[in-house]
Amino acid sequence: MMRSSKGIAVLALAGAMTIMFCGCGTSTQVAKSSTTIKICTDAPLSGPEGSAGKPMVNGVTLAVNQANANRAIPGYNLVLVPYDDVGASGLSDPTTGANNIRAAIGDALTAGCIGSFTSQVTEAMMPIANQAPLALLSATSTSPELTKPSFGKTGTLRPTGKVTFFRLTATDDEQGPVGADYLYQQLHLHKAYVIDDTTTYGKELADAFATEWQKDGGTVVGQVGLDTSTINFLPALTAAAALKPDVLYYGGTAATGGTQLRQQMAQVPGLKNTTFAGGDALLSQDFAKTVGPAGFGSIITVASVNPFVLPSARSFLQAFQQAFPNPNDIAPYSASAYDATNVLIQAIKQALATGAKNPAGSSDATGAQAFRQAVINQIVQTNYDGVTGHIAFDSNGDLTSGVISIYKLDQKGFDFVTQVNV
Fold first, then answer.
1. What are residue 409's DSSP bridge partners?
2. Residue 18: which pLDDT band, with cuts at 50, 70 and 90?
3. b/e sequence 40-56, b meaning 16+ C-beta within 10 Å
4. What is the pLDDT of residue 30?
5. Hey, which of 75, 293, 316, 368 would disulfide with 387, CB 3.0 to 4.6 Å?
6. pTM, whole model, 2 decimals?
7. Which stretches within 225-295 are classed as H helix?
């Protein structure tokens, strides 16, 4: 059937109006922000260090789940993306961590990352995240090189010259000395033999301990570095025994030799009654279980508060134990990881409230750059009361006030002794 000329004219006009009003195919169309915001973590989740990394990620998981349940950021859903940084060696690997943060940056919806768990991996991630920029908040990385210009690495770790890494722990140049002071001044030990695993964390911690030990008046009768491939510690321990130390201090992790070292001490007659001590990376249920009664009396420092003695952490502990009932699910840094995540969530919320726009999707690189910088700008201004106490950052991204906790291993496990403000 043929149409009349009047009908054709009406259709043509309607089509023109449709094109004019919908703006189809024109550059005036504005992409809508995604309602998904991602938070990533980087930690060892497998291998011998997995038992240390998982409790940190559990703290992040709890914070994200609570934020979604409480609609902390109305209209948005937070998604946790956990990265495992264990490499071919079976341990936390800097190259794997660097690849993880590149993957996180490649997803425009990632607003920030909690990690990494170890200082060595964090060091590999920092310059990459700094250039993106993407906020890193760590609840466990304690190397002073990461933040303090006097250690000579911040120029490399901050290629943009801006601070994008923040941490919720004290540092090893504080942790090592607190351990030394306690052992010398409170336990009245005077001769120390020092071993480290040659990693960034282990050597810095051991060196800080040795320096303070000598300042206190103690004697370092020997100091040696044994890399993470070391399995047989007996030659070093035999040499140490000949020097009759009162304490053997280890800078390293349980997985990189601390557990085997403490076990093998029991095989050297001259060290059976020697106190064993070290830093936070030794405090794990696996270490306590494996060394058994031979390890009783070990003194371990942790560069954070003990949440179990804080009134402010009671509701956190109840919620955590309900979500993760296994005793191995929690560790001293779980609370700090929880706080770090909430600091990031609050920064995201404030960035949105002040006009920043979440990217349109995972490939919106331009939108990601602007939003991530807005989040960093809010983290810099953090003034937050968390379960571990008041949180604010100095100009280097460190806490304005930190705490070192001291624990002693006995038949009940790691028994809290005291804490020191630093």
1. 414
2. very low
3. bbbbbbebbbbbbbbbb
4. 53
5. 316
6. 0.89
7. 234-242, 259-265, 285-291
Please identify which residue in the block is written with the tokens 């989040």: 375
Q: Are 345 and 359 within 8 A, CB to CB?
A: no
pLDDT tens-digit series, residues 80-133: 999 999 999 999 999 999 999 999 999 999 999 999 999 999 999 999 999 999
Query: Where, residue-wise, is CATH 3.40.50.2300 in the chain?
Result: 36-170+310-391, 172-302+405-421
Kindly tell me the burial class for residue 417, based on how many C-beta atoms sit within 10 Å of its own C-beta (0-12, 13-18, 19 or more): middle
Contact by Cβ (8 Å): 262, 299: no
Cα angle, residue 136 at apex, residues 132 and 139 outer, rounded to 5°: 170
Superfamily of domain 172-302+405-421: Response regulator (3.40.50.2300)
CATH architecture type of domain 36-170+310-391: 3-Layer(aba) Sandwich (3.40)
Query: What confidence tens digit (pLDDT) does each residue in 366-398 have?
Result: 999 999 999 999 999 999 999 999 999 999 999
DSSP 167-218: ESS--HHHHHHHHHHIIIIIS---EEEEEE-SSHHHHHHHHHHHHHHHHHT-
Beta carbons of 287 and 295 less than 8 angstroms apart: yes
